[in-house]
Amino acid sequence: MNTSILHPDIQEFIIQNTGADITKMALQKNPFPEVDWILILNQIEARSKAKDKLPTWFSAATIIYPSKISVEQTSSEKTAAYKADLISGKTLIDLTGGFGVDDYYFSKKFKVVAHCEINEELSSIVKHNFQQLEIKNCFCYPTDSINILNESELKWDWIYIDPSRRNDSKGKVFMLKDCLPNVPELLDFYFEKADSILIKTAPLLDISAGLSELKNVKNIHVIALENEVKELLFEIHKNYSGEITLKTANILKEKTETFEFVLGEDLSFPTYDLPQKYLYEPNAAIMKSGGFDEVSSIFKIDKLHKHSHLYTSEELIDFPGRKFEIQKVISYGKNDMKNELANQQANITTRNFPETVENIRKKWKIKNGGNLYCFFTTDVKDNKIVLICTKII
Description:
By secondary structure, the chain is of the alpha/beta class. It contains 15 helices and 18 strands. The strands form three sheets. Strands 3-2-1-4-7-9-8-10-11 form a nine-stranded mixed β-sheet. Strands 13-14-12-15-18-17-16 form a seven-stranded mixed β-sheet. The longest helix has 17 residues, at 37-53.
């Protein structure tokens, strides 16, 4: 860890230039020739990326940032805080510590948190930052987590793992067995050290694929931030063999939308109907969960089609996703499209529809934006339709 960047003058320079164009700055003369110019530029760029994602770090004095890639890959504070509320206990060991954002929030729920990071420089940066942030119960170990688990006789309350999704031979990977560490292979060893394990996986990982690689899964958490899925978490407990609950959360500025259901539970069948007065589009976390029939059953609203994943009702309900009032329903044909939408401005979404948004815009010369929201979809009678709607705030 290069501490030369902690000089007050350099820190002030980094703060003053946060958000600046790094490409242009790289061509300028280094005002601090005794310190590597690239190092300073990296601090400016990483701090700029941390502004919205990591406000606690951004606001603190004399924080050292790793590479911008580490900042990009780390959890946001909002998802880390949500995750820390899911579990609690006295001791937790993070086997893949990274920049330490998750552990910062775990330290508020646990008496002792161990941050294991095989990259010694990154580990020293995290240790320095925890001191600046006055975190006293999180201990940094610059070594492979396997060494810590083997050397310690302590039985941890929780193990947390965010396996690296970059494999030297395979490039970027998504299956857990291809990540580092190989969690499926090491699971029995981990259960010797803790009875409860929380695993963060790639958001793109198919849930059924994750279940095929893991055992003793109790809960699966799908976490979205501003309607973009950021984290998929598998919560597993030693010897657990009961039902699996799938819990979704979409963290918004003013609220968090939640929805949960038991995987494979025999619910009443979903109902189907033609478009009514209101239309509902589930948030990204629910879409990722695959609980489409459960949405219909739990909220008692009708699906437009088995594969459309849009819902409708005559009475407006509180719903975890976007809500619209349907102004008009037209068939997807030349005459109706020409009369209603051609050469107009509208926001377009396709669900279970044979054409792309781009093709629709080009074909009918529809500009993006405005107050109209048009859903191109298929109804329960297999007709291609367009729902012309206004959004309900």
